[in-house]
Amino acid sequence: MKPHETPLLRQAAALGHHVHHGIHMLNGQVGSYCEVFGLSAPRTG
């Protein structure tokens, strides 16, 4: 995901909050998106 860290995430971290970038959640959803929309799965690597 780009940018990896947004201004909001930087500000939250600076205030001592735990931030979550969410890329693992997106990666977990790709297969479902492909299935729903009839797309081939993306290549890995």
From TrEMBL:
Protein name (record): Shikimate 5-dehydrogenase
Species of the source: Streptomyces rishiriensis
